[in-house]
Specification:
The chain is an alpha+beta fold and 517 residues long. It is built from six helices and 34 strands.
Length: 517
Amino acid sequence: MTGNRAGALIMAVPFAAGSILLFSSQRRAGANSAPAYWEGAQSAGALLAGDECPIAVEKELLTVNIPEFPPLGGEKEEFDGYGASVTAQYTFRNPTETDYTATLLFPFGYAPEYAPYEYNFYDDTARYTITENGSAVEITSRHSFCGDDSYGSGFDVEKEIDCLEGAGESFYTADTPVTEHVFHVTTPAAAGGHANYVSFCIKLKADPAKTRIATSQHASCFIENGLALIVYNFAQTEGGFDFSLYAFGEDVIIKKQAVYDNRITGALLEDASAVETAKTEGTYAAFVAGRYPGAESGMSEEDWRRGFTEAMGIDMYSTDGMMCSAVPDEIDAADFMRWYEYRLQFPAGETVVNEVSAPIYPTVRGSGKKTQYDYTYLLSPARKWASFGSLRVELKTPYYLAESSLDFQKTEEGYVLDWEDGLPLGELTFTLSEEAPNAISGFMPYRGEIDPVSLGVIIFLVVLAVGTIAVTVGIVLVRRKRETASARGTAEEGKVDLPAPPDTNDHDDNNAGDGSG
């Protein structure tokens, strides 16, 4: 029996920690934290990344079981007992006459930001399973780092797999030389005790084609007078600190180092010093291994090296060809997306049922009983399979379905959705809540229609506004009519009572007197 190895397949199960959790930050929550918004989950469907694959999806049964919402800012023990989960059951068919062996990748995601810090450092694969025709398959835990693009910008399958496999960076290899130059910088106290920013500068010679530079602190890199210039600005205080400059590849030649009170004018800071105290040489493999968070992170050293290298490339910037960055010492295992990796056999002409289970972590908006829990399942990636038959979603929950991008039908256990002809357009999104949608202040789902209660409120407000305007206009007209009648006289029994003319008797008498005289 001859087997072919298919291109890498990515199996993304909806909404889970195994789904793609998109954060603008890795914020940690205390036990009593109650923010109005927590970042949550976005998930992708099954798809092919790589070579053409003949494997078809006959049907997918997605069972979303949400008996409870996640504890926000709780302790690790609360998350250990968290029971919401999702199970995706795929029925695959190999229509060819060739046996296929495929490696599948399932993005298990980042820990949600409302999880306790310790949650990031244990292996969720021990709690959930993957089966092939009912039998458990071996799962390998993988980790990848794609930098800021991993948070909030959607799920790019090809890019995520490149990050997982370390395909994006070719400069760094395990044997790339790394030279560390250590400087000890000392400064006196600022005059008058006021804050004063000064600059530690290193002038060096390097070949941009053969060298990349990184620093232990965030510094700026310039080209000045034919040399590379590293500038680190800091608040002047009495004492000292160490500053490391790393040369990856060919070593640099240090020309000068000094502390400037004003770098622009070239004025040196009096009584300050900058001395190179050490120079060590090693390899890139040793440099990265020295920053490895350890086996307790659940991450392999190889995945850590790939992720760290990706972070190096993200922070690196070019100044007239000279590549500079700070060493990304701030990343840890919590910044890496976790994956399942497993293998399936697809015998020629046969079907295979693959089932994957994982926990569910939604995005959370609001607080108390008015909180809304948002879930997203990306359907579009599944279009990369050879074909896709039908989709059934069973949402088992006691909560209200406040909003959904597709029409679910109510059942005794929750809600159900059947889509018989391929995949629906767009993505599947829905919102759950403890209270009925109309009981949530400030929340009215919009799906192209308005619910009767809201419509009644709108009609009442419109009628009230029109009535108020009509009454106001009537009052104004009556007042104007009265003012006009008062100015011109009033009509009574068909006669007009005009105001009396001015009294002219005195004027006539005067004229008569003048005439007699």
